[in-house]
Write a structure and sequence with these properties.
With 114 residues, the protein is mainly alpha-helical. The chain is built from 6 helices and 2 strands; from the N terminus they run E-E-H-H-H-H-H-H. Helix 1 packs across helix 5.
């Protein structure tokens, strides 16, 4: 386990950078994880993506289709990749649990539909 300190908070991440307890998530925690993932700034567009991903996952217990995220947050197609380069970073910043191998493959563009 890794403990990241940010703005007076101590955030517990697993060895791969995923939030240990997803219920600990808030915007400050997102900023701490973003810093840990070397994402410079959580702009409004990035935060819209993160919040949508989180809300969708919490509601359906499933990862949303990337281009569907962009449509829902009123951004251009492939917004997740453009904003974060690696969609797994967005997933981590959203404070979601480590995805299974199928989702990881999808996020990395290795084919297959989730």
């Amino acid at each position: 386990m890794v403990v990241v300190e940010y703005a007076g908070l101590k955030i517990n991440l697993d060895d791969e950078g995923y939030l240990v307890n997803p219920d600990d998530w808030n915007e400050k925690v997102a900023c701490a994880i973003a810093e840990n993932e070397e994402v410079e700034e959580l702009t409004k567009d990035r935060m819209d993506i993160i919040k949508f991903m989180r809300d969708y996952y919490m509601k359906y217990n499933f990862f949303p289709i990337l281009n569907g995220i962009c449509f829902q947050v009123h951004q251009q197609k492939e917004c997740v990749k453009k904003q974060f380069m690696d969609p797994l970073k967005a997933w981590k910043i959203a404070g979601l649990p480590k995805p299974n191998a199928q989702v990881v493959g999808y996020l990395r563009g290795e084919g297959g539909v989730v």
